[in-house]
Amino acid sequence: MPNLTNPNSNLAYEHLRESDTGKALIVQSESDAAIFLFDLSSGDLNSEVSKNLTAHDIYMAVTLSSSLKFEVDNETYAVIPYYPFLNDDDALELLADVRSRIEDSLLFAALNSDAIFLP
Predict the structure, then answer these.
(1) 49, 67, 107, 119: least CB-packed within 10 angstroms?
(2) DSSP 8-state code for residue 9
(3) Is pLDDT at 112 greater than 90 in this prediction?
(4) How many Å apart are CA 48 and CA 45, to the nearest integer?
(5) What are phi and psi of 99, to 5 degrees?
């Protein structure tokens, strides 16, 4: 069983993170964090942005630009957090926290699953 107090010290956890399965789960956690924070699944709040960009594209653009306003392929976009009281800095912090929690949950679930085989 992984060490839940410090999952990064667990060798199996690290092997999983570095595997193709782990990398796919990390991408999924990034997408899921953007879907959660920017309410991308409802199609209302950020519908114009989500028409043109995937949830992962939005996550990466927001993270790399360190802003809720960003440019992709010479187009400027802005996303609005589901929680309207969040400023840019708080939204970026929450996005990182949510991504981390989702990533850990997905990786721990995969570690406890018989469906994957680690090197």
Answers:
(1) 119
(2) G
(3) no
(4) 9
(5) -60, -45
CA triple 45-47-49, angle to 5 deg: 110
* 3-class secondary-structure state, position 84: coil
Tell me the one-letter amino acid at 72: V
Collect all residues with Cβ–Cβ distance below 8 Å to 73 and sequence separation of at least 6.
Answer: none
Mean pLDDT lowest among 24-28, 47-51, 108-112 = 108-112
pLDDT value of residue 2: 45
Sign of CA dihedral 102, 60, 63, 80: negative
Q: Which helix (H) or strand (E) holds 27?
A: helix 20-37
Is residue 18 over pLDDT 70? Answer: yes
pTM: 0.84
